[in-house]
Recover the amino acids of this structure.
């Protein structure tokens, strides 16, 4: 899958959870969704891109979720 598609999907997930009043819960929800429904390869590709590009195009919830997840690139 292309990185552009992963970014788009990750941002859509974050947009869904963005209205959660508890930001910690919102980040956890984004991370859990990606953990449950994304393959390890998808997560690693997004992590590698975020590390290289500093997450420039990623929603802040995604940036935090990826940082907190502990996935290995």
């Amino acid at each position: 899958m292309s990185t552009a598609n992963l970014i788009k999907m990750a941002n859509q997930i974050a947009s869904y959870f963005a209205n959660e009043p508890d930001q910690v819960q919102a980040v956890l929800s984004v991370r859990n969704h990606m953990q449950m429904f994304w393959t390890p390869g998808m997560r690693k590709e997004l992590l590698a891109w975020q590390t290289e590009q500093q997450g420039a195009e990623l929603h802040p919830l995604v940036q935090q979720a990826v940082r907190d997840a502990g996935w290995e690139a």
Remarks:
- Residues 29 and 72 are 19 Å apart (CA to CA).
- The chain has a mean pLDDT of 92.
- The two ends are 16 Å apart (CA to CA).
